[in-house]
TrEMBL record:
<comment type="function">
    <text>Involved in pre-mRNA splicing.</text>
</comment>
<feature type="region of interest" description="Disordered">
    <location>
        <begin position="106"/>
        <end position="128"/>
    </location>
</feature>
<comment type="subunit">
    <text>Associated with the spliceosome.</text>
</comment>
<protein>
    <recommendedName>
        <fullName>Pre-mRNA-splicing factor SLU7</fullName>
    </recommendedName>
</protein>
<comment type="similarity">
    <text>Belongs to the SLU7 family.</text>
</comment>
<keyword id="KW-0747">Spliceosome</keyword>
<keyword id="KW-0507">mRNA processing</keyword>
<feature type="domain" description="Pre-mRNA-splicing factor SLU7">
    <location>
        <begin position="64"/>
        <end position="333"/>
    </location>
</feature>
<keyword id="KW-0539">Nucleus</keyword>
<keyword id="KW-0508">mRNA splicing</keyword>
<keyword id="KW-0732">Signal</keyword>
<dbReference type="Pfam" id="PF11708">
    <property type="entry name" value="Slu7"/>
</dbReference>
<feature type="signal peptide">
    <location>
        <begin position="1"/>
        <end position="20"/>
    </location>
</feature>
<dbReference type="InterPro" id="IPR021715">
    <property type="entry name" value="Slu7_dom"/>
</dbReference>
<dbReference type="InterPro" id="IPR039974">
    <property type="entry name" value="Splicing_factor_SLU7"/>
</dbReference>
Length: 464
C-alpha cells in the first residue's frame, strides 16, 4: 500500500513539474511555449484557475525526401480551391440568367407596345413572339463557334478560361498550304508561320499570308506604337507602365498624339505665315504671271539690248574679279602641263607675287639654260666599251679555241653515264668493291652536263 501511494505521489509530482515547465502562459495548451502563443493574455492563467483550458494542437511530423522538401505545391488540397471555382461559376450563371430575364422583359414590353398600337393581341401570338425573341437571345451563343472552354493550368481542378481556336475544321492548316521543304518555316510550339507560304500566288485568292502580315497592319501596328511610346516615356522619367496600368498608358498616348498634332499644325501655320503657301487657290496678279511691266526694252536680232534697261544677271555667292599680290588676272586663268596658274606672269604657285613680263622672260631663259646644260652633259658622257663575252664550259673553266670532242668517246661516255644512273636508282645492282677513277676526260664531263637535270628546266619531266 505504501509502495502504491509513493508511486502515485511521484507521478503527481512529475505531472506538476511538467505543467510548471511547459505551461508558462495563460491558454493552458502544452504543445507550444508562451512566446509562440497566439491567444490574448488572460488576467489569471489557466494554470491557476483551471478554466477554459485550450486544447493541444495536433502536430504532424513529415519525413520528406529531397524532391518533397522542394515541392512548392506540397500539402496543397485542390478540393479547397475547387469550392472557390464553384462559387464563381455559380455567380456567373446567376448573372447570365439575370441578363437573359432582363432582355426577355424588354422584348415583352416592346411586343406589348406594338400590340397596343395595333389594338390586336392574342396569347398565341405573344407566345410565338417570345419564342422568337428567346431564339434571338441565344444567337450569340450559337455564333460563338470560334471559342472553346478549356481548363487552363488545371492542377487538381484549376481555373477555366476561354481559349480561341486558331482555325476551324473547314480551313486548311498553315503547314499544309505549301509542302515544299524550303518554304516558310512553321513553329509547332507557338503555331506560328511568320513568312508567306505562297509568295507567288494571287493576293486576291490567298486565305493566309503569314503572321508578319497581321503584325504590321491593323490594330497590331497601333499597339506596337503604344508599347514603344510607353518605353520611351518610362526612360525619360515618366511613371508609366503598359502592363501595370494599360488604361493610363493608352490615355497618355492619346494626349501625346493630340499635343503632337497641335504642335505640327502650329509649326505649319508659322511657316506658311512667314513664307506663304504656293498651293493656295488665291489667284496671282497678271503682272506676276506674265511678267509684264511698264518699262520698255528693245532687243536686236543678236539678243543685245538696244533701248531700255538691261536685266541684271544673277551673281555668284563667291567673290569675283579679286586680284591679289599685284596680279592682273585671277588664279586659274592659265593652264600648262596639268597645272593651273596666273596668265599675267605664268606662275603656278597660288600665293606668289606677280613679276609681270620680266618674270616670264626670266622663266624662259632659265628653261633654255637648263635644256642647254642637259644636252652638254649628255654629249660629254662617254659610251661604255662593249665587253667581249667569254664562252664558259659548264664545269667552270674557259673553253679553249682548239677544243675538239671525239664523237665516239662522247657516245661511250653517255652510255656509261646512263649505266651509272641506273645503278644509283637500284641499290641491288651496286657492286661491293667499287673502283674510283679520279681522271675525268672532256667527253665524260660533257656527257655529265648533257645528262644533268636542271631544276629550272620546264622540260625536265619529259627527259626520261
Amino acid at each position: 500500500m505504501w509502495k502504491g501511494m509513493t508511486r502515485l505521489l511521484m507521478v503527481l509530482w512529475a505531472h506538476n513539474i511538467r505543467i510548471s515547465t511547459h505551461v508558462q502562459h495563460c491558454c493552458g495548451a502544452m504543445t507550444h511555449s508562451a512566446k509562440s502563443c497566439m491567444e490574448r493574455p488572460r488576467k489569471k492563467g489557466a494554470k491557476w484557475t483551471n478554466f477554459h483550458i485550450a486544447p493541444d494542437e495536433k502536430i504532424e511530423m513529415f519525413e520528406l525526401d529531397y524532391d518533397g522538401k522542394r515541392d512548392r505545391w506540397n500539402g496543397f488540397d485542390a478540393a479547397t480551391y475547387a469550392r472557390v471555382i464553384e462559387r464563381y461559376e455559380a455567380r456567373d450563371e446567376a448573372r447570365r440568367k439575370y441578363l437573359k430575364e432582363q432582355q426577355l422583359k424588354k422584348l415583352e414590353e416592346k411586343n406589348n407596345k406594338q400590340n397596343g398600337e395595333g389594338e390586336v393581341s392574342d396569347d398565341d401570338e405573344d407566345n410565338d413572339a417570345l419564342k422568337v425573341d428567346e431564339a434571338k437571345v441565344d444567337e450569340s451563343k450559337q455564333m460563338d463557334f470560334a471559342k472553346v472552354e478549356k481548363r487552363v493550368r488545371t492542377t487538381g481542378g484549376g481555373s477555366t478560361g476561354t481559349v480561341r481556336n486558331l482555325r476551324i475544321r473547314e480551313d486548311t492548316a498553315k503547314y499544309l498550304l505549301n509542302l515544299d521543304v524550303n518554304s516558310a518555316y512553321y513553329d509547332p510550339k507557338t503555331r506560328s508561320m511568320r513568312e508567306d507560304p505562297l509568295p507567288d500566288a494571287d493576293p486576291n485568292e490567298k486565305f493566309y499570308g503569314g503572321d508578319n502580315q497581321y503584325r504590321v497592319s491593323g490594330q497590331a501596328l497601333e499597339f506596337k506604337k503604344l508599347n514603344i511610346h510607353a518605353w520611351e516615356a518610362f526612360e525619360k522619367g515618366q511613371d508609366i507602365h503598359m502592363q501595370a496600368a494599360p488604361s493610363q498608358a493608352e490615355l497618355l498616348y492619346k494626349n501625346f498624339k493630340v499635343i503632337k498634332d497641335k504642335l505640327k499644325s502650329q509649326i505649319k501655320d508659322a511657316i506658311m505665315e512667314k513664307y506663304g503657301n504656293a498651293a493656295t487657290e488665291e489667284v496671282l496678279p497678271k503682272e506676276l504671271l506674265l511678267g509684264q511691266s511698264e518699262k520698255q526694252v528693245e532687243y536686236d536680232r543678236a539678243g543685245r539690248v538696244v533701248k531700255g534697261m538691261e536685266t541684271s544677271l544673277p551673281k555668284s555667292k563667291y567673290e569675283e574679279d579679286v586680284y591679289i599680290n599685284n596680279h592682273t588676272s585671277v588664279w586659274g586663268s592659265w593652264w600648262k602641263d596639268h597645272q593651273w596658274g596666273y596668265k599675267c606672269c605664268k606662275q603656278t604657285i597660288r600665293n606668289s607675287y606677280c613679276t609681270g613680263a620680266a618674270g616670264i622672260e626670266a622663266a624662259e631663259e632659265a628653261a633654255d639654260l637648263m635644256k642647254t646644260n642637259v644636252a652638254r652633259k649628255v654629249a660629254s658622257e662617254e659610251m661604255p666599251a662593249p665587253t667581249e663575252e667569254k664562252r664558259l664550259a659548264t664545269w667552270g673553266t674557259d673553253i679553249p679555241d682548239d677544243l675538239v670532242l671525239d664523237q665516239n668517246k662522247l657516245d661511250d661516255a653517255l652510255k656509261k653515264e646512263d649505266k651509272r644512273r641506273k645503278e644509283e636508282k637500284d641499290e641491288r645492282k651496286r657492286k661491293y668493291n667499287v673502283k674510283w677513277d679520279d681522271e675525268v676526260t672532256l667527253e665524260e664531263m660533257e656527257a655529265y652536263r648533257m645528262k644533268k637535270i636542271h631544276n629550272d628546266d620546264p622540260m625536265k619531266d619529259f627527259l626520261h
